[in-house]
Amino acid sequence: TGHSLASAAAMLRGFSSVYKLSSFELKHLRLLIASRLACSYTLGYYSYKCNPENEYLLLHAEPAKRALGLIWGGCDESVINALFNKACQHSDICKSEKGMFYCADISFPDPSISDPLASVRT
Length: 122
What we know:
Blueprint: H1 4-18, H2 23-27, H3 29-50, H4 61-74, H5 77-88
Helix pairs in contact: 1-5, 3-4
């Protein structure tokens, strides 16, 4: 979708409104997410190799590959950690009365996509 990191941060914001991550968990979150993406990618391609006529098996493998590239090699570790920390901070007050979460502060395109609003973001 071109917003892999922002989508992950938005999901993390919702999750952390229900379950607060400890500093230890937050410290290792990038590694844990990368591990899960690697499993999705590996199992998806293995299944496809066993059954190459079933392209549906690639539905999750390809996005997992792109997201893994961003989280593990495409962005600086400190940037990812800062994004995940920001998503977890104040997740309880970012919720509207209708149960929706405010995520404009953590929404941006992936680095491979130009951001026309980069100059006005704070």
